[in-house]
Amino acid sequence: FTVNVDGDSFTGSLVGGLGSMETSEGKVDGNTITWKMDMKVPMPMTLECEATVDGDTLTGAVKAGAFGSMPLSGTRV
User: Fold this and answer.
1) Whole-number Cα distances in Å, 56 to 44, 46, 53, 59
2) Which has the closest alpha carbon to 26: 1, 46, 3, 44?
3) pLDDT by residue (tens digit) across 14-73?
4) Strand, helix or coil at 40?
5) What pTM was estimated for this model as a whole?
6) Is 66 helix (H, G, I), strand (E, B) or coil?
């Protein structure tokens, strides 16, 4: 996940095994970030993401429509 911050908003992209996705509506509020991504593969849907940043770690959740919410975590490289 690559992010470019501009004040209280951000843009970025995620590259993984199923391709890449661009972020939209990226917002920064203290140590909480929210954003959306339009997934195309394996089926089209909008992913709604929210995470808390603590130092070099990120934890949160991704809402995937009818599939519910899934955990999200990451570490700055």
Assistant:
1) 31, 26, 7, 10
2) 3
3) 888 778 899 999 999 999 999 999 998 888 999 999 999 999 999 999 999 899 999 999
4) coil
5) 0.85
6) helix
Q: Strand, helix or coil at 42? A: coil
Q: Look at the block and give the residue holding tokens 């519910």.
A: 68
Which residue intervals of 1-77 are DSSP H helices?
A: none
CA 66 to the chain's CA centroid: 18
Residue type at position 42: P
- For tokens 């990226």, the residue is 26
CA distance 14 to 77: 14
Both tokens of 25, joined, read 């509506």
Residue 64 CB burial class (10 angstroms; 0-12, 13-18, ≥19): middle
Neighbouring residues of 37: CB distance < 8 A, sequence distance ≥ 6:
14, 21, 22, 23, 24, 46, 47, 49
